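Data availability (excerpt). The following record was deposited with the supplementary files.
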Amino acid sequence: MGGAALLMERVLSQWIGGETFLSQAFRLVLTIAFALVVLAVAAHILRIREFREAIALVLKRSGSEA
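Predicted structure:
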């Protein structure tokens, strides 16, 4: 997950250049989202029960049932 986040940050730095607050914030949000997707995919592939339980709990609390 860390490697994926680092790679995504480097790619986004080339695509979305600039050092303004908004460009940095946008890159940060996209990098975190990508890293969470990598985490979810890895947990699914590895069949980590606790991850599925945590997702189910979050969905239940938010009112969205899957």
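Summary of structural features: The helical segments are 2-15, 21-45, 49-62.
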